[in-house]
């Protein structure tokens, strides 16, 4: 990419698109009368032969970001994969790549808000079938997300996809089973060692898959997608199952681990995600340490600071510890 030779700078990279496209979709089963709903925040970015829109004010290469929003809503209506954020993102990215020949890569992020079915007290069914057919509640602030890049192959035949998935804002807490001892002590150390403490964090998990081939839509309306992507062990196509397992693993390890530190617990979580999901190549956790400080009541002769007797705490938002790591498959 380049501009005028008289200019001191050169356009090195360029990418643009539409952010925060809000999508809510109701899918109605005409036979059972059961409804399913999803709510997404979608980001769509394009990359390709668009440099002249920057360097020469040439809008002829610009797909309007409003058009990207409209295409997102249209596919939310017609795509058979709208209830699965990874498949929907792959469909959207592939459709855009097939539609615009001068675009070389698409980047789609889908963030899913958590809706759960309200239990139906009038139903005699049990398990998932007990849920109300069309009534839902917002199940916390946790969000699931997928990030999809679909890029044309260098030889001009088809495309490849890179997919990442994960969750964020999963707030967890346990009131024991966590310690922090034997850390570096020097003249700057004021933190006491503790063998029993509250452990709370807001989980941010991101895992990535290996690169996979993608067949772009080739029908008249560029909507037929997925048939050729169901074969060959395309693990991102099954991201919904990986997402469920990864969430369960995160919660199970957090609850069961006798934590020597946030770092140690994080490492165990990531190892299990890799062990139980063959298609995942890397796992990254970011775990901010949510602090709960025992209230000192010695001034009235009450022990509330000894770990086993601490029962009243002050939640502290800032500053907070921030622990992160990426674990890659060998």
List its traits.
alpha+beta; 9 strands; 5 helices; 330 residues; globular
Give a verbal description of the structure.
- The protein is α+β, with helices and mostly antiparallel strands and about 325 residues long.
- Helices cover about 20% and strands about 40% of the residues.
- Strands 1, 2, 3, 4, 5, 6, 7, 8 and 9 form a nine-stranded antiparallel beta sheet that branches.
- This is Uricase.
Briefly characterize the structure.
The protein contains five helices and nine strands.
| Poorly predicted spans | none
**Straight-line N-to-C gap:** 37 Å
Q: What is the tally of helical segments?
A: 5
DSSP strand content: 35-45%
What is the average of the pLDDT values?
93
The H/E string reads: EEHHHEEEEEHHEE
Biggest beta sheet attributes: 9 strands, antiparallel
Q: What's the total number of strands? A: 9
Rg for CA atoms = 24 Å
Overall outline: globular
Question: Could you say which structural class the secondary elements and strand pairing correspond to?
Answer: alpha+beta
Helix content, binned percent: 10-25%
Helix and strand arrangement:
Blueprint: E1 16-28, E2 35-48, H1 51-55, H2 65-78, H3 85-99, E3 103-119, E4 131-152, E5 159-174, E6 199-209, E7 212-214, H4 239-256, H5 262-276, E8 280-294, E9 313-328
Antiparallel strand pairs: 1-2, 2-3, 3-4, 4-5, 5-6, 5-7, 6-8, 8-9
